Amino acid sequence: MQQAQAVFGLVHLSCRPSGSTARLLRRALLTAAAALLLLCQVNLFRAVLPDSLAGLADFRAMYSAGCIVGTGHAAQLYDYSYERDLQNEAAGPRKGALPFVYPPFAVLPFVPLSLLSYREAYFVLLLINLLLLGAAAAILSRRLPALVSLWRPLPLVLFLTFLPVGVALVQGQVSILLLLLCCGCYVSLQGGRPFRAGLLLAGMLIKFQIALPVALLFLAWRRWRFLGGFVLGAAVLACLSLLVAGAGGVAVYAHSLLSMAAGVSAPSEQARLGMFPSRMPNLHGVFYALSGGAAWGNGLTLVSSILVMLRTAAARASLPRALLAALLVSYHLQPHDLSLLLVPIAVLMEAALAPMSLQDGVRSRGRAISLRALAGGFAVALLLLAPVPLVLIARGLACLLAIPVAGILMGAEARAGLVASPH
Question: Which among 11, 32, 410, 418 is least buried, having the fewest CB atoms inside 10 angstroms?
Answer without folding.
Answer: 32
